[in-house]
Structure formats: structure tokens, C-alpha cells
């Protein structure tokens, strides 16, 4: 064996396998199974091709099963050392995923693996060059998101591809979803021509966020002062924090439609009949004052009204308890002084991303109400704009990415078909709007929506149902499941989908140190990217 | 012992082993040590796997003569002819050969020459020979007068001392044995126990 890889990276040899199940690799005696981890990348020197794959399982084997029943005397350290790797040995399962051209310098780029390496091909830890040839280097469209396990190489996501579809970030609480999302949003601003609208329930994206160690970390506005606007629902929160937002959002009672209340059914604990009554009431009061008038009716004698609309007494009480919860939201006013939707769209059209902070209203009812209401109207206008551009064959607007947390509240199977977010996820890129959903409980999200997500970034999940939900319909599911269950509890994620050629486990890039900010600002001297389009032409 | 001087001479030979008679009584090389001799066309390496001293003439028994003597040396002094009537010899198992400077760990094309001189190998030669462990293959299946595993173990212990890191060498050799004996864990176990120095 003159071609033997005489280096530290060598792991072992291929002994059997199949394309669907992956190949079995016998570990070299000198390597300890304890130094190997699932999720690590390996390269296999086939006869003609170089394969790139991932370790999906590790097992202990014995040449002769009798050795396990009557093991040699391993209390003797010498004997223990001798038998490890010989009589007993470690075995890896490797899923070959890509083939890299064996010839130095490339030829065609990496291709999905359609075969397996030959018997006794040598297996080694993937090199920096291997990883780069598969995932691509950091460049004008690729954003460095993190490093593979036990390697220093950068894994990059193609942000231009990423924003074309809706995407998801999942993981249980505290796994780093928010930190990761913040980085993704920065990546989008740096590398793709897209703008973001972020519904920021816990005030983590706009001006600043906090890390677990109670350190402050910079928000998007600090990194991109010229191309991010912070909108706020809560002035008193801004005052306490001594930050000034670009716009204070007020929403008129007259802007709320029965559909908005329907979306709140679960958060407000409304019965089906109560939702029905909402539609009846809107019809009865005819104009946009219906909700205000309904709220007034709760305070006065409403027997005539209830009688007329044949609303059951229990239903009326249920509705009253539910709708009155909305009255504690100070951002709801009789009539909004300024048109929030129009303002948001103006910012977005000028290439500025908008972070809508909820301030003290980090309450799921407020979140669902505002996000649904604004998104529905923004989407409708956006759609018109795209249609108009299509008809006039003029320049299409840039991609718009809407970020929502607690996504299962908007996209659970019961309402996903009706909500605006479900619609955006399904209609995909047709109208150049996509969503970025963040959730702790992906099993609560409608299956069809899940299947439409282009790229999924998954931090640790410990609930079996959630794991199944994120992996439904993915090739190599059981292997990925093993990998997923072994993620560290923080700052590690499994990423797969359109924005990269194969699934990858990544240690997410550090965010929050002075060093990290150096490369996370605007790429070109900090000037905001402003569209050539004149605002007035568009929105009048 | 002068390592450049021959210590014995081949008096019986075959492809796989030879018998060599020593020039001096009782001066046999150590059990399990490596010796070398020549065939027509190459240098042959062999392992000492049995040795002893006996009467030159078959059928003529040696009788005890030391009653009352202070030491065996006195016996030889009193009967100088004894040294001529007795001889020491050893059997060596061929484990490889060297032709044109390349060591091959399999049987040579021709057996050791009759009357060929036998030399003890120098530590450096032992180290070179055991740089590869392919000879274990040959050893593990041979039938020997002494227990095969005793010879293997003795040789490996002997060879290990010529390496810079004896323990490392023994582990490597042990792993080689573990492969060969993967279907006989009991034998492996007892063999490995004999490798401890
Ligand atoms: N990339 C990162 N760089 C630095 N610190 C990180 C990173 N990812 C996670 N952390 C640490 O982990 C903590 C939890 O992360 P984060 O707030 O993003 O979790 P989360 O998944 O959004 O949780 P929740 O579901 O409760 O909102 C952070 O406060 C931070 O200290
Ligand atoms: Mg979070």
C-alpha cells in the first residue's frame, strides 16, 4: 500500500455499504472511537472519485463474536491496548453525499453522490479544501454562518438562494435561535438584495439584545444604522431604555377585521361560536367601527343586539372576556394618526429593513394580532406592486423577507390555510415575499408549510414529534435524526435545504464580541442601499 | 561474544529449518534469538527454536562423573577427552532471507548450505528484520519441537530490546498477532501474556 494516507487525518477503510444506507468503515486500530463524533465530515478516496460524506453512526465490533463472550484479559493494559482495533474494532457509518472530482483543480463542481466508493477505499477526515469545494468559499453571495464540527473551515450559505424561499429556524428554548437569526438577517443585508420586516416580540433585533450572561449585544440598527429602521409599539419602553425609535406604531380599532380576531381564537380562548358571532357583528355594524361598537355594547345593555343576532348568552360572555383582553394594548387607538402599513412599505421600498419592537407588549395576543394584521395588508399592497411591475415590464421590487417568532401560533394546521403567513409560505417566491419562521415547537406547524420551507436550520430539539416534523420528507432522515439528537445544547445547528448542497452540522459563528462585529456590518463603507425607485411613484 | 565470528556450522538443512553445531560446548545462542547463515544465493535469517548438548556418537550415552567433585568444571579437568566426545547444537527455523539488500520474510529459494557458517545477528540487524512483522505469518503455523508460542514470544521479547521503544514494538507485534489469531482468543490471550518483559 504505497498510496496509504500517512497522516493524522486517516480514519480507516471502507468495508461494505450501500448508497441508501451509507458505507461501513472499519476504524484504524490507532484511532479511538472516542475521538470521533457523528456529524463530522470525511472524504473517501475512491478509485476514480473523491467522495464527501458525513459520519452518521459509530459502533463497536468484534472480528469473532466469541471474543465478546470470552474477552481477552483486558485488565492488563498491554493486552487491552493490543486488542483494541484488532480483535475488537470501531466501525463508522458514513453517508456519501457528494462526489468531488478527483483530479486536482476541479473539473466540474461537486455532484450529489450517485454511487459508493469501492471496497477498501481509504477514509480520512475531510480537509479544508474538501469542505470548501463542496460548500463554496465566502464570496459576494455566500455568508459565513459557522464552522463544521472540529474544523476551522467556514461553512457558507448562499444568501441569494436562501431568501428566494421561506425558511425556518427551529430549536428548543435557549439553543441560540435568536442569535442565529440575527446573524442570518445580517447575512441577508450583506449578501442578498433583500429587505427584512422583523416582528420582534422580545426586543432582541432592533437596537440591542442580551446574551445569557446579561451582556448587551448589538442589534441590527447599531450595525447598519443607515439601512435599518426600528419601529416601536411601546413608547414607554423606548423611554425606559433611552432609545429613540424611528416610528411609533399605532393601530386603529377600525383597522381590525374579523379575520384578525379569528386568528386570535386560540390565544384569546374564543369558542368557534364566538368567532362566528364576530363575523355576524361585523356584518351588523357594517362599517369599520364594528369592533369599537361591539366593545361599547359589552358595557351597556346588549340584550336587543344579542337577541337579534341570535348569539347564545355563553358565547357572548366568552366573546366579551376575549375581546376585552385587547383593550389593555395601548397601541390600539380609535383611529391611527398615521398609516403604519404605508410607512413600513416606504421604508422597505427604499431598501431599509424594519424591525417592529413590541416593547412591553411581549404578549402572544398582541404579537399574533399585529403581525397578522400588518402582514396581510403589506402583502396585498406588495402583490399589487409586483403585478403592476409585471404588467409594465418594469423592474421588480427586491425580495422581502418577513421574520416571525412563535411561528406555530400563525401556522398551526387549523389556521395555516387561512393565515397570511400560510399563504406566503405556499405561494413561495411568486410575489417576492418569503417568511423566516422561528419556532421552538415545529410539530405545531402545518405539514404543508413545513414542506415548503427551502432551508431549515435546526438547533437541538428533544421532543420526538418536533424532530419528526422537521425531518419529514428529507432524504437520509434516520441518519440526520441521529445527528440531530447529538447536537450541543447551544450554538450548534443542523442545516439543510436549498441554500447549501448537503446537510451540515455547524458550530454557529460567535456573535457579540467586539471582534465579531468587525465583519458583521455593512460591506461597502456603511452607505445604505437605496433603490433607484422614487417612493412617491410607487405608493401613490 | 565476538559477533563477527561464526558460532556454528550447518550440519543438517532443509528449506524451512536447519541444524547447526556449535564450535564450543554449551555456547548455543539464546532461545528465540535471530541467527543468520548463507545459502547458494542469499543470506538466510533463522530463529533459534531448540538447542542442547549431547554425545557425538549416537547410541553412546554419557555417564555421570562428578561424584565428589567440587564443580562441573573439575569434571572436565579430570577427563579432558570429554570435550571431544560431546557437542552442542541448535535447531533454527528459517524466517526470511536477504537477497541484494532486500529483506523478505518468506522462505528462500534454496536451503542453507551444508557447512555454512552461522552467525548471531547484531542488534541493528534484528531491528531491521523486525521492521516488518510479516514473518509472524510464517511462525504462527509452524510445528516446532518447543511450543511454537514460546518461540514467538521469546523472539518478540528479544527483538523488542533492539528497538528504541520496546513497549511500542510489542504492542504493534501484539496487534499483528491479534489479527492472525482472531479466531483463537484463548491462544492470543496466553501468547500476549508471555510478551511482557
Ligand atoms: N452564536 C452565538 N454567539 C454567542 N452566544 C450565543 C450564540 N448562540 C447562542 N448564544 C448564547 O446562548 C443564549 C441563548 O440564545 P438565544 O437567546 O438565541 O436562544 P433562543 O433559542 O432564541 O431561545 P428562546 O427560544 O428562549 O428565545 C444567548 O443568550 C447567548 O448567550
Ligand atoms: Mg429567542
Structure summary:
The complex is a heterodimer of chains A (540) and B (197). By secondary structure, chain A is an alpha/beta fold.
What keywords describe this structure?
heterodimer; A: about 550 residues; alpha/beta; 3 domains; 12-stranded mixed β-sheet; 6-stranded antiparallel barrel; 23 strands; about 25% strand; elongated; disordered N terminus; B: about 200 residues; binds adenosine-5'-triphosphate; binds magnesium ion
Overall number of structural domains of chain A: 3
Question: Helical segment tally of chain B?
Answer: 7
Widest β-sheet, arrangement of strands of chain A: 9-8-23-22-21-10-20-19-11-18-14-15
CATH topology label of the largest domain in chain A: Rossmann fold
Q: Please state the CA-atom Rg of chain A, rounded to the nearest Å.
A: 28 Å
Average residue pLDDT of chain A? 86
Termini separation of chain A (Å)?
A: 76 Å
- Beta-strand content bin of chain A: 15-25%
CATH architecture of the largest domain in chain A: 3-Layer(aba) Sandwich
Description:
The complex is a heterodimer of chains A (540) and B (197). Chain A is 33% helix and 23% strand. Chain A is of the alpha/beta class and 540 residues long. Chain A folds into 3 domains: 3-135; 158-241 and 345-517, P-loop containing nucleotide triphosphate hydrolases (Rossmann fold), CATH 3.40.50.300; 253-328, no CATH class. Chain A is elongated. Chain A starts with 9 loop residues before the first strand and ends with a helix. Chain B has a 6-stranded antiparallel beta barrel. Chain B has one domain. In chain B, helix 5 (148-160) packs antiparallel against helix 6 (166-180). Chain A binds chain B through residues 29, 63-64, 66-67, 70-73, 76, 78-79, 81-83, 85-87, and chain B through 167, 170-171, 174-175, 177-179, 182-183, 185-186, 188-189, 192-193, 195-196. Bound molecules: adenosine-5'-triphosphate and magnesium ion. Adenosine-5'-triphosphate is lined by residues 171, 173-179, 211-212, 440, 490-491, 508-512 of chain A. Residues 177-178 of chain A line the site of magnesium ion.
